Amino acid sequence: MSASPVRKLLVVGGNGFIGSAICRAALAKGIQVTSVSSSGRPYTTPKGHTPAWTSKVTWLKGSAHNPTTFSDVLADVHGVVHTLGTLIEDGGKYKQAIREGNVTKMIGSALGSVFGFQNPLKGSSEGSYEDINRDSALRVCEAFLSSGQGKQSPKPRPFIYISAEDVFRPIIPARYIETKREAEMGIEAMLSTSLPGQYRGVYIRPSLVYHAHYRPLTTPAAAIFDLSASLHRKIPQGIPKPSQLLHYLGAALSPQSSLSIRNAPGPLKDASLGSPLDSIANAITIPPIHVDHVAEATVIALGDSTVRGVVGVGCMRELIGWWPEDQHHSTQKAI
Question: Known InterPro entries for this protein (predicted)?
């Protein structure tokens, strides 16, 4: 493994579900961590507790859409992880429902997403998929590149974007995953025009991310999808798999998918999206992943300069060293 000297890290959204796990994992590796968020408050558990590790993080208030609010930090860090994202455009109500374990509110948000009613963000860009999933990442990446002008780094400075596998359509609107892919391509396009050897883009694509205590409502779904993925792997060769049928039907019904993304940069050759049936096929074959495993893989990717491009669930499990060889599933690390 080729180690990159990431001793100082900026986590955008470090007080969130995935961001806090990344902060904690980075601290365990001896990395100095700074978090930037709209509130600037330290992470607290759903019950309001403040873990001891939070005292070791520098918590700053700033806007990802206006990185000048933390430009001095960008100039000082060796790597950036962008964790902001929204699954449903409802002003964060679904996140609060999951955090509280409120099934009724969560179902209400999901139904609102499916049927498109009661969207408080309709007609406004603030808090939209474009605003949070895509534009915030592009603005931070631009500022990160600007912070390195006139400097030479011995190893590529990593910009890691927490993206997603395409497993939520049609329950979740297509714009969720589209804006994730647009962010990936926009970041890679910017990095490809920077000085050679100075930056590398890594695009972490988790499936359903769960935690039994902090996100108890995700546990039943995680158990179902994990069982589905396990059963899928055990189907003997030669017997058609449900996912194969779904991919076949998806290609037949939508041969020219409107979600197809063409001319993707080299590390993002698999950025194209198929039909919603392809997304369902992904959901029943790609296992869920624990938030701590996402965080551990992200921190390993920070320190390994050979990791770049798309990192799917399979690659994440390989990075943390516990998925057996016969269970490889997702995109391997691109060089």
Answer: ComplexI_NDUFA9_subunit, Epimerase_deHydtase, NAD(P)-bd_dom_sf
pLDDT tens-digit map of 167-205: 999 999 999 999 999 999 999 999 999 888 899 999 999
Q: What is the per-residue pLDDT across 39-82, written as a single tens digit (0 to 9) for each?
A: 999 999 988 999 999 999 999 999 999 999 999 999 999 999 99
Confidence of residue 265 (pLDDT cuts 50, 70, 90): low
Q: What are phi and psi of 145, to 5 degrees?
A: -65, -40
> What is the end-to-end Cα distance of the chain in Å, rounded?
13
Residue of 8, 301, 268, 10 lying closest to 143 (CA atoms): 10
Under 8 Å CB-to-CB from 293, ≥6 apart: which residues?
316, 317, 320
Asked if the model's pLDDT at residue 123 lies above 80, the reply is no
Cα(7)–Cα(269) distance, integer angstroms? 31
Q: Please tell me whether the peptide bond between 240 and the residue prior to it is cis, using omega within 30 degrees of 0.
A: no
Closest CA to 173 of 110, 247, 215, 124: 110
